[in-house]
User: What shape does this take?
Amino acid sequence: MRIDSLRARLLALWIMLLASCAATAYLLYGLYTQSTTVQVAEAEVAATRGCRAIIDRMTGERGRRAPETSPERATALALAGLPGVEGGVWTAAKGPVAYAFPTYEGTGPKTDVPAAERSAIEEINAEALRVEHAVTLRRPSRTQVLVLQSCPLRVYAPDATAWTMLRTHVNEGPAYSRLLAGFGFLAITVVGSAVFLGRFLIGFSRRIARLEAALAAPVAETEDLPHLSATGEPELDRLVDALNAAGERLRAAHERAMGAERLAAVGRLAANLAHEVRNPIAAMRLKAENALASGDPERSATALRAVLGQIARVDALLRDLLNLTQPRSIARSPTPVSGLLRECTQLHEDFARAKGVSVAVEPGDLPGDDHPHLDRAQIARALDNLILNGIQHCPSGGRVAVAAERVVRDGALLLVLRVSDTGKGVDPALRPRIFEPFATSRPEGTGLGLAIVREIARAHRGDARLVTREGEGAAFLMELPWRPS
Assistant: This one.
């Protein structure tokens, strides 16, 4: 995929959007983690305050135990202003001495140490006695972080500690809700953009493919560019309109060019035509003058026959010229080529036999059930001209071969008609203009036969060309679209 194509650019845009969403998700998670860290830190502060408050409630004047305050009452009063904090007094010998959770939101007061956390409470109290200072413990789980604080309580007993506990629900509350909302929005954005860009790319690619197929498809003879249908995409439809307008201008220019080419050809032919007509007229005039001067009936009859022959020559010349300069109307139909080649060669067998030349159809690999779309009469006339040209340029004992094949060139299916002879070949000086009118190496020829062949081929949206074969005669090819429309 080219990086400068629209598809590649849109894909790059989607990748950048995906990367942006990933970065945003990373930042959201970072903010959530930071918020969770703050919550845990605040919980540690609350647990420390609770532990300190229990010690303060149990300590009287001069740092001794206040005799009028029981552990249960001291704990309850100390934790009353700390929401979510529970705690008590613990001794190594007796275990829990006092417990209170004054801010418990359940139905009724909670008076028992939580069984699930008892081992952790015992562990942290033992650690506080061992190190002889306050100890904090964090125990994270999937939905919460358990914060435990334990402080030595020497005023109550040598093995006593005050402890507090607080649960921080990290996957609940406003921060967690904002995180879920942010992730949900990002997911919707990524999926929505992927679906949108995917549908756009698929639809855009299909429309482009239809335009490519329409432009690559063979068109009718009267068109140089096919007429494109609207795609439904405004940007592409503007291009379609521009291409259709350009096609109309191109067709008009092509028609003007064809007309100008015909007029120019007629202009170039005028001098040659005058020469070709002048010779028969001069011969007719000389024969008529001699017949009138002699008074011999037999001589007059011979002169009249010569005059008629020259008139036929001029008539054939003018007929070929008109066929060359007038626009050709092509009536296509599926045409069996093998049969057409046999018919054309059979028409010239007598003339070829009289010159000692053989005419044969070479076998070709043509499908039997698929025929090219041709104007049978026009192609027959072109083949007649080529076969006659080959016979006239072959010496006695020579051979003219006619063949046809189906080839694929540049993705287009073509019919190639080939007429070759074993004559001397085409004079190198004549080759560049062999298909121009009046270009001939035979004194008795008009030089219009090959020009007509080329015009018939071009009318079929094909062309005619000479294949040079040094020392092996000449070969003329007609390359025609198999099915142009």
